Amino acid sequence: MPPDRPVIILASDPALLSSLEFALSVEGFDLQQEGEIALPNVCLIVDQDRVGGGLAFLRAQRAAGNLAPAILLVTHPDARLRTSARSLGVHLLEKPLRSDDLSRLIKMVCVPPNCLHPATCGSDHIVKQQCQGENTLGRPSKPADRRGRHIDESCSQ
Fold it and tell me: Is the peptide bond before 143 cis (omega within 30 degrees of 0)?
């Protein structure tokens, strides 16, 4: 079940944008246009390869007071990018995307603002290891959660 928050996808690559919009609309997500970014109740999906850089865009959004939940799509993120994303409260998801990784992360991250426990708010909560404030779901890496999905390597203990 998709979260109640509308989703905005920001990507410069038309093929990536089109495929993500199609996949998420088929799953029932409420997709909004880029002009709605300032709304506090949206969930942002931003490609790091977006013109100007996805993380730079999210940094500017945070500086402007936009605290909307955000997922940054990345390829081979380094430690600096991970640290920067974590400091902004941005979740990372590594490309290439597989299966339902994006929709599961959206359901985990973009829960209604008044929901403290996603599992009780209609979202398909992903049970994963607690990682000292880590907020990323990536791959290929170790360890994996109980369902076999890989957790970002910075979570290893």
Answer: yes
Q: With b meaning 16 or more CB within 10 Å and e meaning fewer, what string describes 21-52?
A: beebeeeebeebeeeebeeeebbbbbbbebee
Q: Do 8 and 33 touch, CB atoms closer than 8 A?
A: yes
Cα–Cα distance for residue pair 110/72, rounded to 1 Å: 13
As to burial, measured by CB atoms within 10 angstroms (0-12 exposed, 13-18 middle, 19+ buried), residue 140 is exposed
14-26 vs 101-109: helix crossing angle, rounded to 10: 70
d(CA 86, CA 100): 23
> What residues form DSSP beta bridges with 71?
45, 91
pLDDT in tens, 55-83: 999 999 999 998 899 999 999 999 999 99
What are the distances in angstroms from CA 14 to CA 6, 9, 35, 44, 45? Answer: 20, 11, 17, 17, 14
The pTM (predicted TM-score) of the whole model is 0.72
